[in-house]
Task: structure prediction
Amino acid sequence: MPARVRAVPTLDTVAAEAGVSRQTVSNALNSPHLLRAETLERVQAAIDSLGYTPNRAARNLRTKASQLIGLRLDPFVEGSASGLMDRFMHALAEACRDCGLHVLLFTAEDHTDPLDGYEALLGSRAVDAFVVTDTYRGNPAARWLSDRRVPFVAFGRPWDDSRADHPWVDVDGRAGVALAVDHVVDRGHQRVAWIGWHKDSYIGEDRRSGWVQRMHERGLATSKLSARGDDTIDFGRRAAIALLEGAAPTAFLCASDTLAMGVLQALRDKGIRTGGNPAHEVAVVGFDDSLPAQVTDLTSVRQPLEEVAVELVRLLDERMTHPMDEQRGVLLTPSLRLRSSS
Amino acid sequence: MPARVRAVPTLDTVAAEAGVSRQTVSNALNSPHLLRAETLERVQAAIDSLGYTPNRAARNLRTKASQLIGLRLDPFVEGSASGLMDRFMHALAEACRDCGLHVLLFTAEDHTDPLDGYEALLGSRAVDAFVVTDTYRGNPAARWLSDRRVPFVAFGRPWDDSRADHPWVDVDGRAGVALAVDHVVDRGHQRVAWIGWHKDSYIGEDRRSGWVQRMHERGLATSKLSARGDDTIDFGRRAAIALLEGAAPTAFLCASDTLAMGVLQALRDKGIRTGGNPAHEVAVVGFDDSLPAQVTDLTSVRQPLEEVAVELVRLLDERMTHPMDEQRGVLLTPSLRLRSSS
DNA sequence: CATCATTTCTGGAACGATCCAGAGGAGACC
DNA sequence: GGTCTCCTCTGGATCGTTCCAGAAATGATG
Result:
C-alpha cells in the first residue's frame, strides 16, 4: 500500500474549500480590492488552512514573467579582487526581496565573450532582466542588450558610449577622492600625492580628477605628486618610494586599497610612521574599503553598495512596469572610512 | 500603426516550419535518439533558422522542476567575513552550469530565523533544492529540510546531529592543520603554538585536533602552547604576546587568518621577524587564504572551494535523479598556500 | 416596480511545454 | 499473404495559473 501523500494544494483546491470559484481565489491574491470583505476573509482562511502557495511556474507561464534578475559572475581573479562582489551580491539580493524579485546567478562558458550566457537565459525567458556589472573597461553587453531592448540596468557609467541611453547607477569616485583630499588637508597636510592607474582607465582618471580639482580648490599644487601604473601592491610600493625621494609628500591618496597596501609596506620598510599628524606621520588613504583595508586599519573610500543595489532594483522595477519612461543615470556619493592610517 | 514584432517561436512554430508534429520537435530536443536521422536534421535546421529556445516556465510547469538551486545569503558581517563566500558562489555557479542548473539567491526577512525564506520558495516550487552553508554553529535548517524531505546538500558536517542522514560536503580542517604542522616542523620548528577559537566551536576543535595529533605524531609537546578565544585580530595579538612571554614558541598556527593577522601585528610590534627559519624568525600560518592573507603574504590553509562546489552539485544531481539512494558525506582535503610568513 | 449602473463572482480559453496512448509504416518471420 | 514486432511519429490531455468576457447579485434612481 503506497504511502498516502497529501497532494499539493492548487487554486482549485482552495476554491472548493472556500466555496468560490478558482478565479476568485486568484483575485484574492492579486487584486483583493475586487472581493467583498466577507468573501476575502473566507478565501484567506481557506488559503491559510491548506497552506496554499501559488505555483511559480504556472504563474510565470501565464504572465510571461519570471521575477528573476540575471547576474553574470565573471571569473574570480585571485588577489586583484577587492572583495566588493560579496557585499554587492548581499545588497542586491536584499534589495530584490523587497520587490518580490530574486537574483539568478549565471556564468559564461567562454569568459572572453562578454555576451555569452545572456542570450540563452533571455531566449528561454528564464529571467526578466539583467544587472550588468563588469563595466570596468567599456561594456559590450550594455550595447548588445540595449539593441535588443532587453531590460537591464548597469552598475557603472557608460564611459565610452555617449549614445548609450540605458539606466545606470554608479558611484562618484571623483567626489570620494575629493573627500579624502579634504580630510588630509584639514589635518594639515599640504603635499598630497596621488597613486593611481594607467591613463586609459576611465574610472582611474575620474578618481584622479577628484584629487586634481580639489587640490587646486584648496590652493595646493599637484605637480610632481602623481604616479600612474598597474593596480598591484608592488607598483604602490615602488611609486611611494619614488615619490618620497622626490616631492616628499606627507599624504598618499590611492586609486585602490591594493595600491595603498603597497604604500603602507614602503613606509614600514623605511621606518616611517603612518597617521594623521603631518609633523611626523604620513597619511595613507585607499579606495574600496576592502577586507585588507579593514584589517590593516587603512582609511579608505567606501562605496555605498547597499544604496547602489537599492537604486539598481528601483530602476529595474520602473523599467519593467513603465517601459516607456526615459531614464537617466544615478550617481551616488561614497563616504570616507576613517582609520588610523590617516 | 503598431510596430511589427516578430513573435517568439514556440514548439508549434518550429513544427510547422519542419513539417512535423509538435511532439517530434520536443523529442528532437529531449530524446533525439527517438528520431530518424533525417528528421532530426530537418528539425534542427528549423530550430536554428527560427532561433527557437524552449520556454522555461512552460517546461517547469509540466515537469514540476525548475532547475534552480536556492542559496540563502545571510547578513554580511563586516570584518569577520573571510571573504570565502565570493569565491564559493563563483565556484557554485560554475559547477551548476555544467548540469544545466542555476543558483537562485535569497535572503531572510528575519535573519535570526534560520528557516525563514526556505518555505516560501519551496511552496511555490521556485527551486528544486537548496545548498545550505551556514553550518558554523549547528544547523537547524538541515534538520527542518530533512524532515520535509526537501532535497538539499550541506556545505559543512552535521556536527551536532548524529541522526542526520543528509548528504554533505566538508573540508577536513584537521588534515589542513596537520599539513601546517608538518610544514613548520619540517623547517626545524619545535615549539609550535596553536591559537584558536572557543571550545564550543566544533570546527575550531576539529582544526585544533589536527595540531594536537600531528604534534604528538612528530614527538613534540603541546602543553602551554595553546590559546583559545574570540575570532578577532585583537585576541590573536594578545594571545601571541602571552605565549611569547611563556613557552616562547617559534611558530604559530591559527584557526583563522583573522587571528593570524593579530599574531603578525604582535610580532611586528615586538620587532620580531617572520619567516621559516627557526633560528631567528617566527613562522605564522593562517586558515582560509583570505584576501588579507594574500595581501600580507601570510601562509595559509586554503579550502578547495571549487572542488566543494563540484561535489555539492554532484550530490544534488544524484539526489534529484535517484532520490532513493543512500548518500554519505564527502570530506575534502585542503592545501597549504606557502608564503613568506613561514 | 422597472431600469440601469456598479459591484462581485464565474467559467472557458490560453500560456507553451511534456506525458501518454496509440496510429502508421517498415521489416522479419512463418 | 498474414501476423507480429519494432521504430517513428502524432494529437489529445494536462500542468496551475491569469486573462477575458460575461453572468449574477446588489444598489441607485425615476
